[in-house]
Amino acid sequence: MQATADVTKKECSWSGWKGQAIDLLYWRNVKQSGAVFSSVLLLLFSLTQFSVVSVGAYLALAALSATISFRIYKSVLQAVQKTDEGHPFKAYLEMEIALSQDQISKYADKILLYSNTCMKELRRLFLVQDLVDSLKFAVLMWLLTYVGALFNGLTLLILAVVSMFTLPVVYEKHQAQIDQYVGLIRTQVNSVVGKIQAKIPGAKRKEE
Predict the structure, then answer these.
(1) DSSP H helical segments within the chain, as ranges?
(2) Under 8 Å between Cβ of 6 and 101
(3) CA-CA distance, 183 to 47, in Å (whole number)?
(4) What's the pLDDT score for residue 9?
(5) Judging by beta carbons within 10 Å of its beta carbon (0-12, 13-18, 19+), is residue 165 exposed, middle or buried?
(6) Predicted confidence (pLDDT) at residue 20 exceeds the cutoff of 70
(7) What does pTM read for this prediction?
(8) What angle do CA 119, 44, 51 make, to 5 degrees?
(9) What's the confidence (pLDDT) of residue 85?
(10) What is the residue-averaged pLDDT of the chain?
């Protein structure tokens, strides 16, 4: 009974985090989404100018400056008002932040599952289990060589963050038109793939 309650609690917690992420990406709360978006972009742009060590050190110094200043301010305020409110960060210091064994096992199992799935898929593609899929993968890698020549990893990460915070909203507002164009593109791609499968020996998928 306790195990069932724990599983239900974890599922509710995961659903809550997922809902918060969706709310951020769809700008349900403009101030919150704007704060997260601008903070992430500022961090990434900082990494384009400075090393990871420097950015980490500056962030740590900024956080320490804020917390130390607040601690001193509260201490002086308590001394002047002759109150004993205790440590200003007492609630956070007493907050439990350690990962439980169940959580570690859960995340480790997920990582193991994704790793095994990825390795099996790469083996399937590189050993040409399906010729069309391997050709698609080869075309994708060829396109990525041009992407890599134009952009570095951080630039791609910045573009990914911008896309994450803009594309969902655009899709939500213009869903019908986008679905129509995506459907047309998908039809054309399937048509081309079908022609390739018909002309290349051994490319046609086996009937299941």
Answers:
(1) 2-25, 30-49, 52-81, 90-93, 101-126, 131-150, 153-173, 175-199
(2) no
(3) 39
(4) 52
(5) buried
(6) yes
(7) 0.62
(8) 90
(9) 80
(10) 84
The residue type at 173: K
Calpha distance 137→195 (Å, rounded): 18
Instruction: Please indicate whether residue 183 or residue 2 has the higher confidence score (pLDDT).
Output: 183
The Cα–Cα gap between 188 and 99 comes to: 49
d(C-alpha 72, C-alpha 88), whole Å = 10
CA distance 72 to 86: 12
Q: pLDDT tens across 177-199, in order?
A: 888 888 898 888 888 877 777 77
What single letter denotes the amino acid at residue 58?
Y
Structure tokens at 14: 């995961």
Pick 136 or 2 by higher pLDDT.
136
Tokens of 31: 């101030």
Q: What pLDDT is recorded for position 207?
A: 47
Distance between CA atoms of residues 70 and 88, nearest Å: 8
Describe the crossing of helices 131-150 and 175-199 by its angle, rounded to 10 degrees.
120
Amino acid identity at 33: S
Whether the Cβ atoms of residue 202 and residue 130 lie closer than 8 Å to each other: no
- What would the DSSP string read from start to end of 10-24? HHHHHHHHHHHHHHH
